[in-house]
Amino acid sequence: MSLDGTQPVQKAPHRSYPLRVHIATLFTLLILLTGLSICWYAYWQNQKLALQLAQARFSDTARETAASLEGLHRPTEALVNMLAALGKLSDSDTLPERLDGLGLLSEALRSNPQLVSLYAGYSDGDFFLLRRLADVAARERFAAPREAAFLVQSVERAGAEQIEGRYLFLSDDLRILSDEARPDYRFDPRGRPWYQLARSQSGLVRTEPYAFFTTGEVGLTFARRSDNGRVIVAADLTLSRLSAELARASPTPSAELALVDARQRVLAYRDPARLLRPESGQGAASRLSRLQELPAPVLRGLAAQLGKPQAQAGQYRAAGGRDWLYSLQPLAAQGAQRSTLMLAVPLDELFAEARRVRDRTVLATLLILALSLPLTWWLSHSIGERLRALSDEAKRIQRFQFDGEEPPPSPVHEVDMLGQAIGRLKRTIQRFLDISQSLAEETQFDRLLDRVLLETIGATGAEGGAIYLLDEASQTLKPAAMRWQDAALGVAELQPIALDAVSNPLAMAVRERTTELLALSAPREPSLAYVDAHFGLQPVLMIAPPLANRSGELVGVLCLFLPGDSDHISPARAAFVEALSDSAAVAIENQRLLQGQKDLLEAFIKLIAGAIDAKSPYTGGHCQRVPELTKALAEAAHRAEDGPFKDYRLSASEREALHIACWLHDCGKVTTPEFVVDKATKLETLYDRIHEVRMRFEVLKRDAEIAYWRELAQGGDALALAQRCQHEQAQLDEEFAFVAQCNLGGEQMSAEQLVRLGQIAQRQWLRTLDDRLGVSWEEAQRMAAQPAPELPVLEPLLADKPAHRIARKPHEQMPADNPWGFKLSQPEYKFDRGELHNLSVRRGTLSEEDRYLINDHIVQTIIMLSRLPFPKHLQRVPEIAGGHHEKMDGGGYPKRLTRAQMSVEARMMAIADIFEALTAVDRPYKQGKRLSEAVAIMARMRDDAHIDAELFALFLRSGVHLDYARRFLRPEQIDAVDIEAYLTEGRA
């Protein structure tokens, strides 16, 4: 804003263009203008010529069509006049007499292919016809012999009822091949239009074109009465040649040509199949198509212009929007009816050649332009090449493109200096970006430090260098990496440097945050004694830029050592080193943060696994041993050089995913109730309910003793009562011992034992106290579903009460279409604590509901891991961790995956999980299997398609089982295993 408060007027930006653009634009416009002018003129002239040629073609076609009509009519008229004058047909009364004239008739048919037949109709109703059978179709139509060339159709009438019809098939030399009587052939010529027309006139008559009944061709009939008046001689002439000529005369593929009469009936058309249409009515003959029935919109649109005596021509746009050039040429052949030849050609096809010439002209213009532009461009380019090169180089640097060549030298000093400055700028930025990218790509902290040294030494030309990292606890700089020339050296023997060391130049440089060169003269500080090993007593220059994080806090220091006789580092080089040290500091801090997050994640993972193992003595150190075994098997597959795993290789990211999946493979166990995991007896929940059952037996025993004393007091037999009391109590003791044994679940229960258990359960005991007092509100709510019985009440000794069944809450239901793909058979109840129900478990201590809860840990594992925001390279963790209870045959859980649907790592973990469980020695409910026993069990599982056969073979051949046994099994568990006996399926 100006001093007076007004807004200054902004000038429009000045636009400038290179000289080569001006020259190239001028030449381009000139060539294009010339070429397009020539193109337009040629196209206009070609269109005009095409129109003239088309009109001439239309006139020629009309003349040729008229000449064809004359050529068809005149010979036929002459022939009919001659036959009417001769007595061969008019004077004959019988068939043999009429056959004498076959020579003349057959020769006439041979000489004129358009003649279909010659015939004579007599006043008494007789009929004689000679037809030429020109092709196979004609012979098949009349069922003629194969050699037949002519057909004689004869009708002789001896009276009203005596009619003799005959077909005579003749060879080409007029031999009779077949003489067939045709009683059904009763044709009477006297009723035909041609007969009646010729009868009424003295001269030659001609019918209107019509469709021949016998052959279906379009033609017309010529007829004349004989001189004696008793016979009408006629000839059928087909017009098929006209359609063929129209088809040949079509100037373009889509041109429409048709010959129509005054009644707009189509006499000839380029497509002869369109000439006829069937008449309406059953058995009716075909008729000529009308103009409006042709599939030619342009001809139908021109129908309104027919009927004018003079020729018409012009352009017409049809219904589909296509433009046509048309011509209507009236034809008046001598003696023939007036007809019109309609011709229409689409303009796009008519002008196709003109367009091709136009396109070639445009192409030639563009070709000339393409050939001339390089020359023009080269001339203009050479003028401003040097400045353009510098401009382009600056633009490439702006786009961070550093792969171009150096700008060419210039005789202008200022331009040459600018080019050199741009070259140095490009190299500096490219070097800085390359180093930054290489540091960002490094993921291992130790390699990152060495990479920082390597890149920095190479960029500065130093002899060597070292990196010290700050230990905040001790406030010292500890050596972390050292490199001299092309070799990385160890730092174990290097001494740390205290930050407050007064005489140490490195500590002083860090305190002052300086990047200036420092001279290190001999003898040097003990902490820098390693410099003497490379430089001896020579003077040394050191530059030590501090490494600071984003917050400006000290992270460490980068030391670079140069010979003392080196030229001083330029300010530009010093600024580059400082910028590079900042980038290195950020990379180091990022790696430290990333490693810290990984360490924290690892600690949480092991914390969860340790908590699961500590939660129940039944799991022991399972979560800590399975990772060791799984990773050992994975490494064996990684090292395999032959067999099914020769191409299996683990990347660092895949190893990390496998490591996490192994440690978290049972994390879902945190949701499993401890009393279910630790269920040692069938009646155990949070406590063992066998004590309740024992108290009921105690009550029954007391009831037996009370009954003894009561009946004894009433005068009963003391001996008998005592014996009965002792018997009942002994029986109760024995039944309780049986129930207690069933509660242990040590052996599979037989059907007889289940029956006996049911009989014992039917015993009744008397309850006199309300069982709804002192219970939790949730249990009281379940018991309220049933009405309370009136006390005292008899109850079964072992009961399955409704209150024992705990329903599954809605959010605990697992629908069949769950998003995780679980395929589970979910029990109706979450818990069924019925006493008889649990005691009737055939094997083990777990009921169906308990077993589901145990297996649910893998379901919860998958759900929990699926909800974690794993990065891309760890997204397979849920699949690997959640597949170790699947079986190769699809019979596992929770997804019933087959081998093909499981990853190799998930199949590895399945083997590790089973082997660890079989051999574990820290489970209080069992002893660990010996090595041979565990391998034999797993071999049977392989044969049953429970574990992967190829991985099991690798597990044995690689010795993973032995390595694990030496680390985690007791010496007495490690026995000899003949692995060859288990390497083939079916030999377990």
Automatic annotation (TrEMBL):
The chain crosses the membrane at residues 20-43, 361-379. The keyword tRNA processing does not apply. Residues 762-971 form the HD-GYP domain. InterPro entries: GAF, GAF-like_dom_sf, HD/PDEase_dom, HD_GYP_dom, Sensor-like_sf. PROSITE patterns: HD_GYP. GO terms for molecular function: phosphoric diester hydrolase activity. This is GAF domain-containing protein. Keywords: Membrane, Transmembrane, Transmembrane helix. It comes from the Bacteria. The keyword Ribosomal protein does not apply. PANTHER family: CYCLIC DI-GMP PHOSPHODIESTERASE PA4108 (PTHR43155:SF2), CYCLIC DI-GMP PHOSPHODIESTERASE PA4108-RELATED (PTHR43155).
